[in-house]
Amino acid sequence: MTLLLDALAAAIGRANVLTGDDAAPYLTDWRKRYVGRALAVARPANTAEVAAVVRECVAARAPMVPQGGNTGLVGGGTPDDSGRAVVISLQRMKRVRSLDLANDTVTVEAGCVLQEVQQAARAGGRLFPLSLAAEGSATIGGNLATNAGGVQVLRYGNARDLTLGLEVVLADGEIWDGLRGLRKDNTGYDLKHLFIGAEGTLGVITAATLKLYPLPAAQMTALAAVPSLACATRLLERSRAAAGAALTAFEVMGAITLQHAVETLPALRMPLPLGEPWYALLELSDAEGEQHATSVLERVLAGAMDAGEIADAAVASSIAEARALWRLREGIPEAHARRGGNVKHDVSLPVSCIAEFVESTNAALRRRFAWIEPIVFGHLGDGNLHYNMGTVAGTPIEVAFAHEQAINDLVHDAVHARSGSISAEHGLGQLKRGAIVRYKPAVELELMRRIKRALDPLGLMNPGKVI
Ligand SMILES: Cc1cc2nc3c(=O)[nH]c(=O)nc-3n(C[C@H](O)[C@H](O)[C@H](O)COP(=O)(O)OP(=O)(O)OC[C@H]3O[C@@H](n4cnc5c(N)ncnc54)[C@H](O)[C@@H]3O)c2cc1C
């Protein structure tokens, strides 16, 4: 293995091959749930260097773990504890290679932080709409490898929908240049989609050509207090009917979820009393201007109030107020992590099933575990809930973790019974690799294994993840 370390140092420079304490931050995931060991962390600076690192690892039969910002929530970027793997960190590959305004595309390297890509687009007068709470650290490579969702999927789709082309270093070290900025290209299998959402198990994404959109002329954000999830679903329907494509986000948060967040992070402020069981966060992005956006939003909220779908609402009157409303939503994962975490589920269901799913699954969980406290929030507009389970005051969270498997089975069975997905946007990683076997049809699992064998016959690319 010293030979491999020397070969990596020769390929990318010794300073970019981290071992010992320098490697430690790359070996634990964001939730501190997984701690791995690695031979080294390699930090290549360009595609040719990534290819060289992969070739050296293949020659030494060393497993490889691609890593971006290390904000993934399913342990996909953490090596196992064998100490044989090489973590390939893309963090030094941060170049915006080109901005093509006439084609509405940007080509960026995989280590670009999502926020930097948004800023590069904005500097060109365009919108790159992928947006999520970890955008200050998550990288484009990680976003694509996990097919990240976030808060604007409702309007713009997930990372897959925003990608026109990819550059990938394959599992044998060959470089595939598929960086085409085409919106139409029916020339056989669309290979980029194999690597998007593969969580680093088929190759290392080194660059991507992404779609850009016009910047909205105005944005309006509102927080509405909602008596039930069924009412939130009706409010979503009403908002869509009135705003159409201008409805760019529709999030929900449980009152208990928000209450804990506000108590834990003093910077968060609720503009409404926490008196209703649910809160909906709506965002309208209007192509015409502020007056139009305001009139649409006011019409939606007034209609919803008359119909009893909402009890109260606060409309942001400045960018600062809109940011403060978003911070409430975006602060939830961090606040709950500080409180000791909870048993997490990232599920999706047809929107029409969500209210019934939550009501009946909450009841089933409470019948079995009297101490359970549902911590629920998520992207209602996409049918995606973070349906997490904490414990009521007086019961330590360790009690929930001790029953994690039983809670997971109950929740995932309920999702599966309604034709939902047990991983809407975070992926499978290590966390759900076992669980998916229970729910995915055997033929789908076998097709995935065949693809894995075809593209990574030695099984060195992120082993122990996904399948
Ligand atoms: C506070 C918080 C909020 C979040 N909110 C959301 C959300 O709203 N929506 C959402 O979808 N996710 C969310 N996430 C999860 C996470 O941010 C996303 O999964 C993100 O896309 C991961 O990017 P990353 O660069 O951190 O990837 P990492 O964590 O480094 O890696 C994630 C996976 O991708 C693989 N990978 C990374 N880079 C590459 C590459 N260049 N080539 C091949 N494989 C690669 C890794 O091996 C691993 O399997 C959130 C996370 C946090 C901490």
Quick structural summary:
This protein is of the alpha+beta class and 467 residues long.
Task: Describe this structure as you would to a colleague.
The protein has 467 residues and is α+β, with helices and mostly antiparallel strands. It is 35% helix and 21% strand. The chain contains 15 helices and 18 strands. It has helices at 2-12, 47-59, 114-123, 140-145, 153-156, 192-195, 229-243, 255-264, 290-306, 319-338, 354-368, 397-402, 404-417, 436-439, 442-455, and strands spanning 17-18, 40-42, 64-67, 86-89, 96-100, 105-109, 126-127, 163-170, 175-178, 203-211, 213-214, 218-226, 247-254, 278-286, 312-315, 346-348, 372-379, 384-391. A seven-stranded antiparallel beta sheet has the order 15-12-14-13-17-18-16, with helices on both faces. It has a five-stranded antiparallel beta sheet with strand order 5-6-10-8-9, with helices on both faces. A four-stranded mixed beta sheet has the order 1-2-4-3. Helix 8 crosses helix 10 (319-338) and helix 11 (354-368) runs antiparallel to helix 13. The protein is globular. The site of flavin-adenine dinucleotide (FAD) has 38 residues, from strand 3, helix 4, strand 10 and helix 10. Flavin-adenine dinucleotide is lined by residues 30, 65-73, 76-77, 90, 110, 132-134, 138-139, 141-143, 145-146, 148-150, 199-200, 204-205, 333-334, 425-426, 429, 462, 465.
